[in-house]
C-alpha cells in the first residue's frame, strides 16, 4: 500500500508549517526526510500518520482517501525522539500492546513479540520495566512495538538523536537491515546529511515547510536541484564561490581566471555561483587540470584520520577536507587545488545547471 | 468525504451537557427572566425592562459592598501570593520531609468551608478561644463581634489560613519543574539567593503563578460561607461582602427582581476579570519558552 | 589558566558503597596541563559528567582530591574555583537582555560598571553577538543562546578553566561547524584550559589536543586524536574511535603472522614473537580505512592478499563503506568515493604496519 500526498498544506494561525506538498511513496521503499529544525519534518510525519489534519490537500493510502481518518483506524507505527514506552508495563507487554488492542490470539502475540524482540536484540530483557533499561534499549523497545504489527506505514521521527554516537551507528546498521525486510513505506526524519547518506534509499529534502527535492539519495546528493538543497545536504558545509563567466574564462574574484570545461563553456556570460564539496578540494596538486586557489589558514581541525582546514580567500571562508593528518599554522598561506570538473554551477536564481560527473 | 470520525465522542459528553444545562444554564435563564420583571407574587408579574438594573447600580449600599469586596480581594492577593511562594521556597524538595509538608499544607483545603467559619469563631472568642483569650490576656482588646477592624483581621486571618496552601502547592509544582542546570549555572555565576529567586525561579514560575492568581481572585471575589458563618456580615455592615449583600437582598428581603439583576451584574464583573486574566495568561504562555 | 590534578579520585553516589559497581568513578588519577584543550569522551554512563561535576565543584568526590595549580580545592564551591560551565541546553536568564546576561557574573562580583561594559563588549565582539546586545535573550536561536552561555564564562577575567557538558547537543549540524570553529578560536585567543565532555568522537577529535577516553568509570587512554586512532591501547578505544570502529578478529599467533581461520595475516616485525609468551587469547585489529578491498589479485600488488566476499556497499558521499565477509565474520572497509565496488568475490589486504595485536583487550603490538 503506497502513500500519496496531494497539495498538502498546513497552517497554524499565521505560521506556515507545510506548503503545497505532493509526494508519492512506494510500498517497500525507504524515504529519509532531511531538513533543518523547524523545516516541517515532524508536521509532515503527523499529517502522514493522521495525527493532524492538513489545512488543504488530501492524503491517500492504498488508493483510499484517508485525509480525515483518525490515526487509530490507520495501520501505522510511529517511533519518537524521546523513548516513549508505557512506563508501568514490562517490555513484553509494551511490545505486545498494539496486538492485544486488536484482539490477536495469545499464541500469535507471543510469537510475534519474541520475533520482534530478537530482531532488535532485546529478547533477554522482556520482563523488565522501561525505567530499568538504558536509552538505547528503551528506543529498541519503541521500535519493536512499532514493528510488531504488520504496518503499511512506519514513521520514525529522528529516533536516534538522543542516543550516543556509537549506539547510533549500530542501530542505524540494524535498522537498515530491518527496513530492507519489510513491505511497508518507511519514512525517517533527520537533520544530519550523513545519516541520510548512511540509510540510503530515497531522500526528501525539506526547507521552511516546502519540499525542495525528492529522489534517490545518491542522485539528490550528486545533483542537488538548487543552492538550498546543496546547503542542507552537505556535511561539512559545501563551499560556494561567486563566479562571473566571461569571454574566455571563469573569473573567481579578482585574481583568478580559468579556462572553462566544455559544459561551462556552453553557458551564457553572467554571474553564477559555483559550489564544490570540501573533499574535492585537495592540499596537493593532483596533476592535469588542477588549479590552485590561495588563501589564509583560519583553523585546522584534526579528526583522527582526516583534517579539516578552514581558510579564507578574499572575504569568503572555505573548508577543505583531506585524508590523513596535516597541520597548518593559523595565518599561514595555503594553496588548495581544485579541478573545474568538480564544480557545481548554479545560476543567479540558485538552480543547478551543471553537476560534476559521477566517478570523478 | 471530509468528516472526522469523532461523533462517538459527543455521546460521551451528552450526560454532562444535560446536567450542566439543568443545574446552570436553565437557572441562569430564570435569573435573567426575573431580572427584567417586577414580581409581587405568583402570577403577578410585570415586565419592567432595565428598571432593576438602574436601581441596583445606583444603590449606595451595593457600592459600599463592592468597594469592601475589592479591598478584601486585593488584600488577599497581596498577602497570599508572596506568602505561598515563600512557603513553597522553604519546603524540602525530596524525601519524606516533602511528603509530610505536602500533607500538612493540604489539610486546611480539605475542611468544609462553613466548618472553617465555625473553627475561627471559637478560635477568636475572647473568653474561650486560644487566639482570642491569649491576645486579650496580653492586654490588647480584641473582639471581632464588636470592632470592625478586629472583624476584618479575623476574616483575613481565616482566609489566608484557608487558601494560602493552594498557592503554595501550585508554586511548589512550578519550582519542581525547573531543571537543576539553572541552579548550577547560577552558582557558577556567583548569584546570590535573591538573584536566583528574581532571575530564575520567579520567571520560570510565571505560568503557574498566573493560574494561582486567577483562581484566588475568583474565589475571593465570590466568597460567602466563611465570612457569613464567622461574622454574619457584621458588626454592622463592616464585613458585608458582595455575595453576602446579594443574599440579604434576595433571601432576606425576598426581592427577587433586584437580586436577579444584581446576580447578573456580579456574574458579568467576574467574567470580565476572568477574561482579563486569561489574556494575561496567554501572553505569559507564549513568552515563556 | 590552571593545572588540574586529580589524585586518586573515586566517587560513589551511594552513602555506603560496597563493591566496584557502586562507584560511578572507579579510579581517576591524572594531570591536565595549563591551557590545554581536553575532551572527555565516552559512552553514556561512563562517568564523564560525574568527572566534570567534580572538576567544577558541583560535586564533592567521595574519595581523593582535586588540585588547581597545586592547591587543594576539593571542598571549594564552584563560584570559588574560577571556573565556568556550559551545559547541554542553553541556560539563560530569560528576563534579561543579552548584555545583562553577559554582565551578570561580573555584577555579582561587584566589578565597577565601566569595566563591566568594556569586558562585555569585548566578549560580545569575539562571539559575534555585538548586534544582539540589546535584545532579550529568550528570543534568540539555540546557537546564539549557547554562545551567550559561553560568554558568561569568558567574561570573567579570573576564569581559569571552562567546562563544557555536551554543549552542541541542541545545535543543528550546519551550525555545529561554526560553533566548533568559534570554540577553537577562543581557545587559541584566550589560552584557557578547556575541558569538553561528549559522546561524539567527531566533536572530541576536532576540538581537543588531548582526548581522555572513559569507560565504566575509568580512564582507558589519554592521547592525541592521532595516537588514539593509530595506537589504541584498549579494544574499547579501537571500537569507539573511528567511524566505523576497528575491525577485530580472533586469531592465533604463528611466528610473525596472525592466523585467522587459516589465513596468515602479516604483523609488524618481531611483534608476534614477543607476544606469544603472553598466552593464547589474541585478536587483531585493523581500521576500515586501512583495510584494502580490491577486485583482482593484481591490484593488491606485492602485499599478501586474501579472498573475501563483498556483501554490500554504502555510499556516504565522500567515501564508501564496504561490508566484506572474511574469515567467517563481517568486516568493514572504507574506500574513496571515486572507486566503484561490486558485490561478489574480492581480495582483502591488511597492511602489516596498520594491523594491531591485542591480548586480553589490551594492545601489545
UniProtKB/TrEMBL annotation, chain A:
InterPro entries, alphabetized: AAA+_ATPase (IPR003593), ABC_transporter-like_ATP-bd (IPR003439), ABC_transpr_FbpC (IPR015853), ABC_transpr_MalK/UgpC-like (IPR047641), Mo/tungstate-bd_C_term_dom (IPR008995), NA-bd_OB-fold (IPR012340), P-loop_NTPase (IPR027417)
SUPFAM superfamilies: MOP-like, P-loop containing nucleoside triphosphate hydrolases
One GO CC term on file: ATP-binding cassette (ABC) transporter complex, substrate-binding subunit-containing
Transmembrane stretches, start-end: none
Entry keyword set: ATP-binding, Cell membrane, Membrane, Nucleotide-binding, Transport
Record GO terms (molecular function): ABC-type ferric iron transporter activity; ATP binding; ATP hydrolysis activity
Residue span, ABC transporter domain: 3-233
PANTHER family: MALTODEXTRIN IMPORT ATP-BINDING PROTEIN MSMX (PTHR43875), OSMOPROTECTIVE COMPOUNDS UPTAKE ATP-BINDING PROTEIN GGTA (PTHR43875:SF1)
Identification of the protein by name: ABC transporter
TrEMBL record, chain B:
Pfam family, one: BPD_transp_1
Location within or outside the cell: Cell membrane
Membrane topology listed for this record: Multi-pass membrane protein
Gene Ontology cellular component list: plasma membrane
Gene Ontology biological process: transmembrane transport
Bilayer-spanning residue ranges: 12-36, 70-90, 102-123, 160-178, 207-225, 259-278
Gene3D superfamilies named among the record's database cross-references: MetI-like
Major location category of this protein: membrane
Family annotation (InterPro entries): MetI-like, MetI-like_sf, Sugar_ABC_transporter
Domain ABC transmembrane type-1: from-to ranges: 66-277
Annotated keywords: Membrane, Transmembrane, Transmembrane helix, Transport
Membership in a protein family: Belongs to the binding-protein-dependent transport system permease family.
Name this protein carries in UniProt: ABC transporter permease
Organism: Desulfovibrio subterraneus
Phylogenetic classification of the source organism: Bacteria, Pseudomonadati, Thermodesulfobacteriota, Desulfovibrionia, Desulfovibrionales
TrEMBL record, chain C:
Gene3D superfamilies: 2.40.50.100, Nucleic acid-binding proteins (2.40.50.140), P-loop containing nucleotide triphosphate hydrolases (3.40.50.300)
Keywords: ATP-binding, Cell membrane, Membrane, Nucleotide-binding, Transport
One function term, GO molecular function aspect: ATP hydrolysis activity
Keyword ATP-binding: yes
Family annotation (InterPro entries): AAA+_ATPase (IPR003593), ABC_transporter-like_ATP-bd (IPR003439), ABC_transpr_FbpC (IPR015853), ABC_transpr_MalK/UgpC-like (IPR047641), Mo/tungstate-bd_C_term_dom (IPR008995), NA-bd_OB-fold (IPR012340), OB_MalK-like (IPR040582), P-loop_NTPase (IPR027417)
One term under GO cellular component: ATP-binding cassette (ABC) transporter complex, substrate-binding subunit-containing
Pfam families xref list: ABC_tran, OB_MalK
Keyword Methyltransferase: no
Ranges of residues in domain ABC transporter: 4-241
Protein name (Swiss-Prot/TrEMBL): ABC transporter ATP-binding protein
Taxon lineage: Bacteria, Pseudomonadati, Thermodesulfobacteriota, Desulfovibrionia, Desulfovibrionales
